[in-house]
Amino acid sequence: MKRFIELLRSEDRNVRHEAIEVLGEKKEKEAVPYLLPLLREKDSAIKDAVINSLVNIGGAEVARGVAPFLYDMDAGVRGAAMEILERLGNDSIPTLLSLLEGEDEDVAKFAIDILGHTGKRQLSYALIPFLTHRNPNLRSAAAIALGRLKSYEAVGNIVSALLGERDEWVRFSFLEALGMVGSPDLVDRLIAVLSEEERPISRIAALEALSNLVRPEDARRVLPLLKKGAELLTTEALVRFIERLGDGLGREEKEAFLDLLKRRLEVDDPQELKEVIRGISLLRDERAVGLLLPLLERIEEDDEEMKTLVKEALKAPGDSRSIVECLGRVERNLDVLIEALGEIGDDVAIHTLEDLFDRAGRDAKRVIMKVLARAGTSLELAIGGLSDPDGHVRKAAARVLSRVAGDPEGAGKAMEALYRAILQEPYEDVVEAMVDALSSLGTLEPLKGKAVSMLERLLHHESPSVRRSALRGLRIAQGIDSYLSEALKDPSPEVRKEAVSMACLLENPLSILEPAIKDPDRRVRLEAVKFLEGVGNGLDTLLKALDDEDIWVRYKAVEAIESFIPEMGERRQEVEDTLLTLLLQDEIPVKVACVKVLDRMGSEKALPVLRRFEGHEDPYLSRCVKEVLWKSQGSQKRPS
């Protein structure tokens, strides 16, 4: 390890960084005195590495060595020391306790703050005396630390100190600490404080603390206090009251909270507005729908996050009637009301959306059909949607029909309608949705033969996109291998490529992948190489692909060979020789792929050849080679 300690003085920052990391990984305690001075490094990456290494080494010795840096004039150095002491956990506790006894009150505060994050309640005895310290910073820090430790035994001391505290902001800290502790009798104590306390900052602190402790049975006692101090309370705390009171809120209390939240719906801060909406959602009150309508008119139509929050608040009461009543009063963001109705999904909601469909505008129709696709709708409406002028509506209608699970007669009608629509559909993505729906209905046993017959006819359609979709739909058919073999003769590369992507359905994928490797279109060959990865007995086919005229087919073939490394056995040498030949003769991307696979193979034979490329003009190839050589030689310095 002495060699790495010496490297800490290197002028090369990369060498220093590597040495610091190694010493930390090896947990070398003798390196601690040499690492400590580096906490003053201006280079943030070096300093972070030192912090991590010292924490890794750990122990009381590190804590004692770091403590003096809390007195440093540089705030960054002090911050680094605090981070180490906090991350050392139990190892730092004796040192921190000794710092409490020192004369430097700033350092004592650092120690208190860190002790508050240890999670050790038994340390409360050392912090309680600071509740009455002459320094207000220490009083405040001690209270917060005790709160973080959830020190129930300190509650009496905190309350006692609170009653005698003159500094408002320290009183705030005491009340905040009580809220963090959460002692069962604190609700009564805090209600008593609020009943007598008139100073605003103390009332704020008491309300904040109470918001973390209040119980459902406290609803009636707390509500008058909230009404009196609502303007002092943050929206976050107000919503926290709603969360904690929960089932204790009756209709009257919910109305009071809705009134308090309504006043905040005009706020400009988006984050606060989101919290207001979340509070309304938690109340699950149908009267909230009327409150949210003006907000819908304000929200930008592309603000999906805000719209989702409003939708959740609208549907939270589970009452579709209150939303139905508002449908005619909203011009902007009507889709939010429609989505809410669909997700409630009761009969009133579904019938309303079905009735609205015919008179809705294009955008609303899209949303309605999308919603009904999830919630279910009448067969006639979905079939009618297949002939809608808007492609999005037709696509959604197809998805609705894919879920028809009623009688075979209804499903049969849906299949006939889908088949007719496919023959007329100009858009590829809509065709795909329609074919998928047809195929899905074909999984119903009485209709499988009919579906397969329709899909077979579509295989002869003039449009390649229809043929490709039909081929994918034939997954439901028996003897899929015959369809795939035939599809490999299709004039469209896209259809042939689809056939290759379906080879995984076969017991013997090579029956499709082997001929695909010789396809005249490079896209088909690339797809075949991609699917050959890991296919049993596919190594020979991959090796043939290494002779392909296209560089990217060769590149992908080399990458795919890696999956065969565990099972190469006696063929290992043959593969090594082939890759080495490519490394010497092929283009840069293929060379790089060969280097990586030879490295994974642990090829000793490749090392002399790799050295030829160590200084290659292509930086990426050179770096890959240097990485492999670095690992094989155990060099001190990692290549940069």
Q: Tell me roughly what share of residues is in helical segments.
A: 55-70%
What multimeric state do the chains show? single chain
Which class of secondary structure composition applies to the elements?
A: mainly alpha
Percent of residues in beta strands? Answer: under 5%
Main beta-sheet annotation: none
Average pLDDT, rounded to a whole number, is 86
The DSSP helix count reads 40
Morphology call: flat
User: Radius of gyration, Cα only, in angstroms?
Assistant: 36 Å
Cα end-to-end separation = 23 Å
Low-confidence stretches: none
Could you give the count of β-strands?
Answer: 0
Overview of the structural elements:
This protein has 640 residues and is mainly α. Helices cover 66% and strands 0% of the residues. It has 40 helices and no strands. It has helices at residues 2-7, 13-25, 32-35, 44-57, 60-66, 75-88, 93-100, 105-115, 124-127, 136-148, 155-164, 168-181, 186-196, 200-211, 219-229, 235-245, 251-262, 270-283, 288-298, 304-315, 320-324, 334-344, 347-357, 362-375, 379-385, 391-401, 408-424, 428-441, 448-458, 464-473, 480-487, 493-501, 510-516, 522-532, 539-545, 551-561, 572-585, 588-601, 607-611, 619-633. The longest helix is centred in the middle third of the chain and has 17 residues, at 408-424. The radius of gyration is 36 Å and the shape is flat. The two termini are 23 Å apart. The mean pLDDT is 86.
